[in-house]
Amino acid sequence: MEEVPQETQVIPDFQENVLSYFPIYSSLRVNTDFTHTQLQRDIDDKISKTKQLSDDFINEIADMSPIPLLELCREFLESQTESYTKLVETKFRLQTLQTALRHAHSSVVDTRRLEDDLTLENYIQYCELTKENFADAIIADVETKIYSEQGCSTILKADSWYQYIRNCYFVLEHPEDPLPDDQVDEELAVEGGKISLKDPFSLNYFVEPLMAISCKHVFEKEHIMGEFRDSPRTKCPITGCVAELTKKDLRPDLLMQLRVRVHKAREKNKSQSRATRLQ
Amino acid sequence: MSLSLCKVRLQEERKQWRKDHPFGFYARPKKTADGTLDLTRWDAGIPGKSNSLWAEATYPVTITFSDEYPSKPPKVMFPPGFWHPNVYPSGTVCLSILNESQDWRPAITLKQIVLGIQELLTNPNPDSPAQEPAWKAFSKDRATYEKKVKEQAKKYANAT
């Protein structure tokens, strides 16, 4: 049996030297896998159910004129908007955490290759190292992204279904009015303070309206697509608008579709009650 | 087969014009030989602005729409030999909103076209001459220009 040479074993003064950074032991298995497939699936499922329920509800009442139990409709649509917002936020948080962990994984692996395991010999060296621990770095990363809220509000702003459900009730009540406090709609073709529910090509009511994301002008799908027959880009068909459009700039305009439905139902109701009066 | 966009749009233009149009103007599709309306060819009248050289008269134009309308603009013509710096000897009007490669947009309505032409009558564009005599007179001999405009106004004077 060999004798361990005593003079090499230097015990550091632990009270004087406090370790702030801990290198990760090479024998430790690094598991940053946080896929949580089931959780993700649950959220997506709830999102699609919320959409379906709201769409079905709007479908039921859009052609009614007047719309019954308006106050209850408003409450329902508001609560649907709120649920949807919360689900989107949750999904965003989960994704942020996953991304942060994925980033951490590669940096953990890389660093571990370069750093020796902590021993009594190198303890003092590690004490002098001022470096953020991995766990702290991950938490900081996630917190800046989530609590800035910048991320999620940007996502919601660009989410066409969110914009739709959020403004549904207003449109049910005022199918021809521009959305309140919304710069978006100031750009729309407005005549006498009303929003035009007609396609600028055919001057007929929209059937399948598409909105240009750049200038917010709305066109009937069939007709604006015709403009791309000869060229992949076209000037916006609206007088005075300088936007150049491609097919990629166009999105279905659900709100406009709803405006047309509600407006038509009202017109029908008006002409019917006029007819009854005349009888 | 569904109606072409051109026909659908022109029917709607006609409906809107009948419902409401600017005072003093007229616009109606021409009748074909068998008495039906040809929505692609219209007769229209542009009144000169009051208190201008062009006042008290209504100038006739024909407006022709191609199958590609409203992607392409209609063609607007005064009678041949019409006296105006921006009207070709053939009568064709030279106006940026009627030029596909310039300011034409499918959203421009018939009402906007005729109002644009009314504006052009009193405010010619000296940068795009379409005929020699009226353009020369307009830029160099205003007295002759005005005399000719007034003569033309008499020719198309409104019935009193």
From TrEMBL, chain A:
GO terms for molecular function: SUMO ligase activity; zinc ion binding. It is found in: Nucleus. Pathway: Protein modification; protein sumoylation. The keyword Metal-binding applies. CDD domains: SPL-RING_NSE2. InterPro entries: Nse2(Mms21), Znf_MIZ, Znf_RING/FYVE/PHD. Keywords: Metal-binding, Nucleus, Transferase, Ubl conjugation pathway, Zinc, Zinc-finger. Residues 186-241 form the SP-RING-type domain. One of its GO terms (biological process) is protein sumoylation. One of its GO terms (cellular component) is Smc5-Smc6 complex. Belongs to the NSE2 family. This is SP-RING-type domain-containing protein.
From TrEMBL, chain B:
The keyword Nucleus applies. It holds the Pfam family UQ_con. The active site is at C94. This is SUMO-conjugating enzyme UBC9. Belongs to the ubiquitin-conjugating enzyme family. Residues 5-158 form the UBC core domain. The lineage of its organism: Eukaryota, Fungi, Dikarya, Ascomycota, Saccharomycotina. GO terms for biological process: protein sumoylation. One of its GO terms (cellular component) is nucleus. Transmembrane segments: none annotated.
